[in-house]
Amino acid sequence: MARSPRKSASNGDSTNLWVWLGLAVAVILLDQFSKTLILGFFQLGDSHTVTSFFNVVRVHNTGAAFSFLAGASGWQRWFFIGLGVAASGFIVWMLRRHPGQTLFCFAISMILGGALGNVIDRVIHGYVVDFIQVHYAGRYFPSFNLADSAITLGAICLVLDELRRVRKG
Q1: 31 is catalytic
Q2: DSSP label at 65?
Q3: Is 37 in a helix, a strand, or coil?
Q4: Distance of CA 106 to the CA centre of its chain
Q5: What letter would DSSP give residue 137?
Q6: Helix residue spans in the chain (DSSP H)
Q7: Is 148 noted as a catalytic residue in this protein?
Q8: Torsion on CA atoms 41, 45, 49, 54, rounded to nearest 10
Q9: Which of 31, 121, 148, 161 is catalytic?
Q10: Residue pLDDT, tens place only, 9-66
Q11: Which residues pair with 55 in a beta bridge?
């Protein structure tokens, strides 16, 4: 994905960087707060029906998206921590290079916050706490959390930003 050349650093760019990092921190705080509530009020496997298509549950995921590698022997915890830290470093670098590109920076800030929210879980618990369960007609989508939602929103916005950029080009 080609980006415009880096502009010279200015106070506006520096301020924008802090806004984007602040957004990522807000995502982390909301994610961790929601997971703390789930850990405090639900036992592993508990489920509370909210609507005909939505439950609040407590699930522990030692894998990645859709429980990828959940059955591995434990090495995946450190792999996903390392991957999350490396991706976060790259995202901060991208934010520094493109602080004025609003949709792009929003997208990667959401991804940054979500990635670090799940990294924190892996470091503290050894698994990610998932609690949002969506289902329809007896089919259940894998449980997820606010960090996963932020990553998904960020990915959607990243695609939209790229489509917008291509149209302009």
Answers
A1: no
A2: G
A3: helix
A4: 12
A5: T
A6: 11-41, 75-97, 102-124, 146-168
A7: yes
A8: 110
A9: 148
A10: 445 567 788 999 999 999 999 999 999 999 999 999 999 999 999 999 999 987 666 5
A11: 49, 133
**111, 104 contact by CB (below 8 A):** no
Half-sphere exposure of 48 (CA within 13 A, CB side): 9
Catalytic residue among 31, 121, 130, 161: 130
- Read off the pLDDT of residues 115-142 as tens digits, 9 standing for 90 and up: 999 999 989 998 999 999 999 999 999 9
CA distance 99 to 120: 25
**Helix, strand or coil, per DSSP, at residue 45:** coil
Token duo for residue 157: 């916005």
Q: Please report where in the chains the tokens 């996963």 appear, as a residue.
A: 148
60 and 127 Cβ atoms separated by less than 8 Å: yes
